Amino acid sequence: MYHIEYRPQTWDEVVGHENIVKGLREHLADEKTRVHAYLFSGPRGTGKTTFAKLVAKELGCNEHDVMAINCNITRSVEFMRESIIPSLNYRPLFGSIRFCLFDEFHQATKDAQDALLTPLEEGCPEHTYFAFCSTEPEKIRRTIRSRCAEYKLRPLNNMQIEDLVLWVVESEKLELDQGVIDVVVKEADGIPREALVFLNMVKHCKSAKEATDLIEYGEDTADSDLRAIARELLGAGRWVVVKNAYEKMKDKNPESIRVGLCNYFKKVLVGAGSKKQGELAFFLMSQFLSSMIDNTAEADFVWALYECCRK
Ligand SMILES: Nc1ncnc2c1ncn2[C@@H]1O[C@H](COP(=O)(O)OP(=O)(O)OP(=O)(O)O)[C@@H](O)[C@H]1O
Ligand SMILES: [Mg+2]
């Protein structure tokens, strides 16, 4: 999956956002004045997690000292109080900095967010840093938000997306028609992750037409196990059926199954014949809207599947 393999590992590999990169690096360079909390906001797939990880790296944090918390899953105040806050005082295990990365932080409950205020304000040990990522920063408590250095990641322009696509095309030695590349750039609509997911889909396409069909129709919706899951969720929702179909797809990336399911439900929603069917497709789609990457991807995915069966 290109969008995982080609996550920028250095600032030089980041496409676009020149001013943010420059400002951030200058800010981080001054140990005395740099803040301990960073907020990256922006639409899905625009680089929030990438930036947070680069900040950790720039601070010299060992990757094993990065604690990543997905607030889609763990959002309760108990979790913050019992697991996160006490751990802030521990010394880092591998290096000199501990880094807490909260993904989709706006999903943490109000109380859970408030619980972080004290450590952010005063109780924060010198070696602890925070990064919050969010697609909906306006839902983050103002008190928290005002204590962060906030960076807004906007979609890239088509030229920048093309640069990104060409970087991967060259590294992978793909032989692609310019027409196919143009389709990827256009369909990505400024979102770097989309560009790389689409590129992966169309890398064997011979023409722009073939690429457009594939992207718009969706590769995975042609997959029979995926259809079995989607149909079961739209129907009886028996966990055992869903689970068995999922087991057969184990070697697939959860992210690509997610995108396939999402597209499937989208089609059902658009073509829904009744309010009830529409509502159901809407609910199912909502469970698969957030991307599932990083080390909890599989857990996120199974969680969403099970949640759908409980409907
Ligand atoms: N500015 C960029 N330059 C190069 N690649 C990028 C850039 N932004 C994103 N990408 C690519 O897109 C992928 C997804 O980015 P990332 O996971 O950081 O997005 P995100 O904003 O955290 O998404 P989400 O909202 O789903 O959590 C990266 O792994 C990388 O391949
Ligand atoms: Mg992210």
Supply the key terms.
311 residues; alpha/beta; Rossmann fold; Helicase, Ruva Protein, domain 3; 5-stranded parallel sheet; 5 strands; globular; binds adenosine-5'-triphosphate; binds magnesium ion
How are the secondary structure elements laid out?
Blueprint: H1 2-5, H2 18-29, E1 37-41, H3 48-58, E2 66-70, H4 77-87, E3 98-103, H5 110-115, H6 117-123, E4 128-134, H7 142-145, E5 149-152, H8 158-171, H9 178-188, H10 192-202, H11 208-217, H12 224-234, H13 239-248, H14 254-270, H15 275-287, H16 297-309
Helix pairs in contact: 8-9, 8-10, 9-10, 9-11, 12-13, 12-14, 14-15
What does this structure look like?
The chain has 311 residues and is of the alpha/beta class. The protein has three domains: 17-152, Rossmann fold, CATH 3.40.50; 158-217, Orthogonal Bundle (Helicase, Ruva Protein, domain 3); 220-309. It has helices at residues 2-5, 18-29, 48-58, 77-87, 110-115, 117-123, 142-145, 158-171, 178-188, 192-202, 208-217, 224-234, 239-248, 254-270, 275-287, 297-309, and strands at 37-41, 66-70, 98-103, 128-134, 149-152. It has a five-stranded parallel sheet, with helices on one face. Helix 9 packs antiparallel against helix 10 (192-202), helix 12 packs across helix 14 (254-270) and helix 14 runs antiparallel to helix 15. The model has no long low-confidence stretch (mean pLDDT 90). Magnesium ion is lined by residues 48-49, 103, 133.
Fraction in beta strands: 5-15%
Largest sheet: number of strands, sense, barrel closure: 5 strands, parallel
Measured as a percent range, the helix fraction is: 40-55%
> What pattern of helices and strands is seen along the backbone?
HHEHEHEHHEHEHHHHHHHHH
Separation of the first and last Cα atoms: 31 Å
CATH architecture of the largest domain: 3-Layer(aba) Sandwich
Calculate Rg over CA atoms: 21 Å
For the largest sheet, list the strands in their spatial order.
2-3-4-1-5
Bound molecules: adenosine-5'-triphosphate, magnesium ion
CATH topology label of the largest domain: Rossmann fold
| CATH superfamily membership of the largest domain | P-loop containing nucleotide triphosphate hydrolases
- Average pLDDT level: 90
Approximate shape:
globular
Helices, by number, come to: 16
**Unreliable runs:** none
Give a count of the beta strands, DSSP E runs of length 2 or more. 5
CATH first level of the largest domain: Alpha Beta
Helix-strand category: alpha/beta
Number of domains: 3
